[in-house]
Amino acid sequence: MDALLVLLAALTLGGFVFLPWMRRRRAVQHTRQGLVVAADPMAGYGFVPLEQLDVRLPGPDQELDEALAEMRRTHDWRPAAELLKSTGDDWERRWQRVQTLAGAAAFELAEGGTEQGGGGRTGGIWLRTWRSEAPKDPGGAQTHAQFLVVQALRDPGSQDFRMILEEARTVCREAALLAPGSPIPYITELAVARGLGDRPADYEELWSKVVQRAPQHMGAHLAALPYWSQKWHGSRKEAEDFAERAAAAAPAGTLLPALPLFAVYEHLPEANMVRSLYQSAVVERAIEGAHFALREAPADHPMAPHVRHLLVWFLVRAERYAEAMEQLRLVDGHVGAVPWSYGRSPAAEYAAYRALAIAGWEQLGGTSAGFPPPGK
User: Fold this and answer.
1) Crossing angle (nearest 10°) for helices 62-74 and 78-87
2) 81-91 pLDDT per residue, tens
3) Mean pLDDT, contiguous 10-residue spans, the chain (376 residues)
4) What secondary structure does DSSP assign to 78-139, as a single string?
């Protein structure tokens, strides 16, 4: 079960960013210091203990938890189908659920090994049966397409990488025909296009199909951002321009003003980890954009926890501990989000930053007695 949780965390946002190993190592070294500073961060604050942190999702989703539990017990695809059917056109939530279901199928395949008969890339038992018994179900096709992307991105150096992505593209287009108004197949195809190295003009055409259907979809923007980044097919300027345009054009109530924070994180310099970097005008502006987005968006926005988790990371590094504690209060318990999901132990990395925030908060005179209960 622990292996499933780690895999699902690693698949958050469909492989939104692949950080260099050195940055992850430095982050771990930095956060381990926090564990020493605040040895017992749970005392009086009501935070969830390390061993109970849920690394699958950025925030709670009871319906998804129940569906996954039933599928693990019965190997039946119907709980997944009913879950997506009930999700309807809540595109942000549907996107997260499709990704998690695809990750569960990928884990089942990895756990059981590739089966004989050429069916190895079709996924877990329930996903294979779903596609066989309900081939016209758009939820099954969307989950299958995302599953193939997961399989490809787990080993980009594989000789099958391009073949699997081409198959994923075929299934994306099948899913699009089954639900013409849904942006989900096109969001999945963004990762396919990135992996296959589509030309910018072709990528723009694909992106236009996403925004026609869900122009303010935060998950879609996070999925598109890496294509324009320096490590893929663009540059720091192109990625920042993409994020700034989306933020500037966003109507009230969306989370898009937080997108520049993700672009900044994507392009942090490898060598410069000094404190002043996180107190620079660029970082401060991105942090304030994220704060603004969270104030204006609905409190239950499915993507809000993603923003809060990244804010915690930046606020702790900027030594803005009171603000970090406020975000921790609202997000504690689930850690399946950037940046924790890039590490080998997402829960431990999150807990280390939480310890740093508590230590900084107490150094500034804060106490657990005056701290509101988490989640309230």
Assistant:
1) 160
2) 999 999 999 99
3) 45 39 35 42 81 91 95 94 97 96 88 47 80 97 97 90 97 98 98 97 98 97 97 95 96 95 88 68 94 95 96 96 95 94 90 95 86 74
4) HHHHHHHHHHTT-HHHHHHHHHHHHHHHHHHHHHH-PPTTS-GGG-SHHHHHHHHH-TT-HH
Tokens (6 digits) for 304:
């809000």
| pTM above threshold 0.70 | yes
Distance (Å, rounded) from C-alpha 254 to C-alpha 301? 9
Instruction: Give pLDDT tens digits for 292-302.
Output: 999 999 999 99
DSSP of 216-279: T-HHHHHHHGGGGSTTTTS-HHHHHHHHHHHHHHPPTT-SGGGHHHHHHHHT--SS---GGGGG
Q: Which residue has the tokens 């926090």?
A: 34
Give CA–CA dist 52/33, Å, rounded: 22
Q: At what angle do helices 91-112 and 78-87 cross, to 10 degrees?
A: 160
CA–CA separation, 79 vs 64, rounded Å?
Answer: 9
SS3 54: strand
Quick one: which of 227, 223, 197, 232 has its CA closest to 11?
223
Which residues are within 8 A (CB) of 343 and not within 5 positions of it... i.e. 6 or more apart? 24, 27, 28, 349
Burial label for 88, CB within 10 Å (0-12, 13-18, 19+), is exposed
Facing residues of 54 across strands? 334
